Amino acid sequence: MPIKTTVITGATSGIGKATATALAAQDHAVYLLVRNIIRGEAVKQEIIDKTGNKHVYVIKCDLADLQSVREAAAGLSQKLMSVNTLINNAGAGFSERQVSKDGFEMTFAANHLGHFLLTLSLMPLLERGQARIINVSSEGHKLGKPNFDDLQSVQKYSSVKAYGMAKLFNVYFARSLAQKFGDKGILAFSLHPGVVNSSFADKLRGFEKILMKLARPFMITSEQGAETSIYLATAPQLDKFNGSYFKKKKVAKTAVIAKDVAAQEKLWQISEKLISKSVV
Ligand SMILES: NC(=O)c1ccc[n+]([C@@H]2O[C@H](COP(=O)([O-])OP(=O)(O)OC[C@H]3O[C@@H](n4cnc5c(N)ncnc54)[C@H](OP(=O)(O)O)[C@@H]3O)[C@@H](O)[C@H]2O)c1
């Protein structure tokens, strides 16, 4: 029988796939939340073949579609009593402004809001599992500012600023979770995985794509990029670091703005409002 139950987003490629594989190899039951079922099933089979662990499951979940997130959380809540690890790993940047099914700017929707709804919807399971919640952020959060006056980048869109803000929100969200649910046994962290040679740059265009291509020889592998996520999922006694940001398996400094408790709370309140009709 598996020792732990892990739910992970964005495991169809890159860092998420490497993380899911490593945790399956360590006897976790792993639930892959994917927007593309065909890709998800292929990865599931790959993980089973590689690790011999048959407790790998695929659940449809498009993080940029709140109804899809709601359905994924409801499905998990029917199947499982508890979850021990939730890895909010999926993420993407967009060279041009795009809008999600619910009308939110895509970077905000896919990197933050979908994970916010997923996490809150799974909270009863997470509390029962005394879970660790791991948000895969980025050093890119240091380029972000919490632009509450134009969260959806309607007035002006910059892919770098939108990505930086969404990754800053991953840090905020981990801090808020630690603060609000720490006394219920929940641990929450955010992390930078390193600069990883994954499919991440494939969706970028123009100058950003060229920059990423030039950086490729200096990038680490997805397996190396997964190391901090795996560490946070499995290392004993991380209680005293609850809410912290990690890099290379160690607590790391965030941007000063990432410590702004009022901004963390403001994001929480706004996010709650945005998903208010959506929590299962
Ligand atoms: N690569 C880096 O250098 C780097 C650096 C810092 C932080 N990060 C962060 O690391 C995380 C993983 O990135 P990666 O490098 O492994 O990139 P990747 O190979 O492009 O993987 C991204 C994953 O997210 C999934 N995804 C994207 N949008 C989604 C949505 N709307 N709903 C559900 N799943 C969605 C993708 O699914 P599909 O297969 O369906 O596209 C894929 O599985 C991201 O949060 C990223 O911001 C990466």
TrEMBL record:
Q: Is Cell wall biogenesis/degradation one of the keywords UniProt gives this record?
A: no
Concerning SUPFAM superfamilies, the annotation shows: NAD(P)-binding Rossmann-fold domains
Top-level division of the source organism's lineage: Bacteria
Molecular function terms, GO-annotated: oxidoreductase activity
Alphabetically ordered keywords of this record: Oxidoreductase
Return the InterPro entries for the record: NAD(P)-bd_dom_sf (IPR036291), SDR_fam (IPR002347)
| Name this protein carries in UniProt | NAD(P)-dependent dehydrogenase, short-chain alcohol dehydrogenase family
Species this chain originates from: Mucilaginibacter gossypiicola
